[in-house]
Amino acid sequence: STKTSSFGKKFPDRFFNIGIAEQNMMGISAGLATTGKTVFASSFAMFAVGRVYDQIRQSIAYPKMNVKIVATHAGITVGEDGVSHQMIEDISLMCALPNMKVIVPADTFETKKTIREISLEKGPTYVRLGRSKVPNVFESEDEIKLGKAATLVDGDDITIIASGIMVSKSLEAAQKLKSEGISAGVVNLSTLKPIDRQAIIKSAKKTGCVVTAEEHNIYIGMGALVSSIISEEYPVPILRCGIKDTFAQSGDYELLMQIYNLTADEIYKLSKNVITMKK
């Protein structure tokens, strides 16, 4: 399911299938890292974070081990597998760990670039991936600069800051707003830790209001991170699109996105509302 078997076929002596023993997988990964190896550990986000948080904290984050945790099937993209497999709190958990870098790629190009670049860096990293195919928002890897927020569309009336699969939906919302004469900027905030504070502040100053969009619990997620920076540095109206502090039900992924208002229409509505809140 994580597609790592293709690596195993090409490099069988560098691939280990640990099975349903994710705590052990993280311990082995940390051990290999102590010998100088660059280690990638991959599983569903629910099991790569929720089941093994103690091992990540004690054996990887604290000693700054060179382990890259690539979590797939994050958020509610796992759909029919239900709440036992869905993961809507991983960003808050991983961002809370000192020494841990956190990245949520927006599309295929950014995912490829992320994996290549973190393989050359030292230290622990968490990469959050979904299950379903998403539209590309970039045209190539060349235009991507990891660690920096990317302005995909310039705008003067409102800024939409999004991560992961919600970036493409934010672009849809911006197009709808444009058809009504509203200039909406769209910012892809893929690196959540360390976060690009200056880009967030610059956007808030330029447009005077912000909407955030994420496939995560809004209680403590990307939107909360952005809100804290804006409240400290340049307070402007901000509304958040995300899962509203509830476990999701089981069902078709696209249907769940509608049920929990993770849609371009919801971003559009929030954008219209937040504009009216500007002084």
Provide the β-strand percentage band: 15-25%
Spatial ordering of strands, largest sheet = 1-2-4-3-8
Shape: globular
Main structural class: alpha/beta
Q: Mind describing the biggest β-sheet?
A: 5 strands, mixed
Order of helices and strands: HHEHHEHEHEEEHEEHEHEHH
Tally the beta strands. 10
Number of domains: 2
CATH T-level fold name of the largest domain: Rossmann fold
Supply Rg: 19 Å
Whole-number mean pLDDT: 95
What's the CATH first level of the largest domain?
Answer: Alpha Beta
Helix content: 25-40%
- Count, helices: 11
Poorly predicted regions are none
Measured between the Cα atoms of the first and last residue, the distance is 49 Å
CATH architecture of the largest domain: 3-Layer(aba) Sandwich
Description:
It is a single chain. The chain folds into two domains: 5-128, Rossmann fold, CATH 3.40.50.970; 141-276, 3-Layer(aba) Sandwich (Rossmann fold). It has a five-stranded mixed β-sheet with strand order 1-2-4-3-8, with helices on both faces. It has a five-stranded mixed β-sheet with strand order 5-7-6-9-10, sandwiched between helices. The model has no long low-confidence stretch (mean pLDDT 95). The chain has helices at residues 5-10, 22-34, 45-50, 53-61, 90-95, 108-119, 166-178, 197-207, 222-233, 253-259, 264-276; strands at 39-44, 67-72, 101-103, 125-128, 150-153, 158-162, 184-188, 191-193, 210-217, 238-243. It is of the alpha/beta class and 279 residues long.
